[in-house]
Amino acid sequence: xxxxxxxxxxxxxxxxxxxxxxxxxxxxxxxxxxxxxxxxxxxxxxxxxxxxxxxxxxxxxxxxxxxxxxxxxxxxxxxxxxxxxxxxxxxxxxxxxxxxxxxxxxxxxxxxxxxxxxxxxxxxxxxxxxxxxxxxxxxxxxxxxxxxxxxxxxxxxxxxxxxxxxxxxxxxxxxxxxxxxxxxxxxxxxxxxxxxxxxxxxxxxxxxxxxxxxxxxxxxxxxxxxxxxxxxxxxxxxxxxxxxxxxxxxxxxxxxxxxxxxxxxxxxxxxxxxxxxxxxxxxxxxxxxxxxxxxxxxxxxxxxxxxxxxxxxxxxxxxxxxxxxxxxxxxxxxxxxxxxxxxxxxxxxxxxxxxxxxxxxxxxxxxxxxxxxxxxxxxxxxxxxxxxxxxxxxxxxxxxxxxxxxxxxxxxxxxxxxxxxxxxxxxxxxxxxxxxxxxxxxxxxxxxxxxxxxxxxxxxxxxxxxxxxxx
Length: 471
Description:
Elements: E1 2-6, E2 13-24, H1 37-43, E3 44-50, H2 57-60, H3 66-80, H4 84-113, H5 118-140, H6 143-146, H7 153-184, H8 186-209, H9 224-238, E4 244-249, H10 252-281, H11 286-317, E5 321-327, E6 330-342, H12 349-355, H13 359-367, E7 371-382, H14 383-388, E8 396-403, E9 416-423, E10 427-434, E11 437-447, E12 450-461, E13 464-470
Antiparallel strand pairs: 1-8, 2-7, 2-11, 3-8, 4-5, 5-6, 6-7, 9-10, 11-12, 12-13
Helix pairs in contact: 3-4, 4-5, 4-7, 5-7, 5-8, 7-8, 7-9, 10-11
């Protein structure tokens, strides 16, 4: 799940809230005793990164637009003065430019596929090919600026990394556009396929000429080296968008204070028992000895019960952890997150309504109730620090959540179920059907006075995710 947090420019501090309720079938035996917080945070991977600055593909091909202008100026600076500061700035602009290239290609293709008329789609495909070619040509003109004796080979390779990455994403996104047109818009596909294939073949030929690896049809290694290099380049380029994150326990001082209070309460109880028996029976007596042992036993239990009580109360006010996020050591905000199991009667009315179980599920739920995980996330962004820490127009951050479902398939039944049907030849026949489990995700976003709810349903079994629906 990719959740964007866009900070308004007129507000210095922006606060966001996201709650996610996960509805789990009772038959999967996932509850607070079998699935701890530690298990949950092992299954959830959260990556926080800047939202890629938004530029149209035609702007990326314009030599006077900000992205090309900035990268051109940084190349000239490095060529004339290859200082550490200039090299770092030059590398940053390469990464940002290529990250924007990837987003602008993706957005252009989505716009083409969502266009309403055949004529619009054809015109947009022509513009896509034109602007993608121009953009690649403008970036490759920088080679003559940066490929000079004052620039070391290791620094020149930053430019080559960007060139190879750009060629890869142009090829990949053009293939995706070609496939989508072939699947959905056959007439446009027939008219535009040649120009799209020319663009793809031009990039493949360019990569071969410059020694960049290309995908081979009959590869002995199944193109594993190409795939590995694709992944390494992607991580390198997009590293400019990822933020430094420093995690710590939320409310750690308050928690320790209340835990100390729990220890004090138990100590008071044990001391009262000891003093009472000492006054009545005196020192070095058997009743006092027994009282001290019993007092110690009760003291230990009172301490644990008090800790449990305070911990439960604090969980409703504090989060499990708090993470500070920064760009180049400049703090731009923080986010907090927590996980807990909740009962259905604690759900907000709008969430219960959106869950909308069928009659048979509602009847079953009275016997074997669904288990509900609540994941809370609070985000705060400092608009001023975001603006000061980046020369590009960054609107906010994306939080990319990956949720691993392996824990939920351990106690599933076999994915295939035998089914009997009548047959004219042999009277009956056995066929196989899929045994499917459903997990529902309801997300609620709050920002200022805005409230938005979304519901997703995932159908999956031991073989993996079969489908996902949005309601």
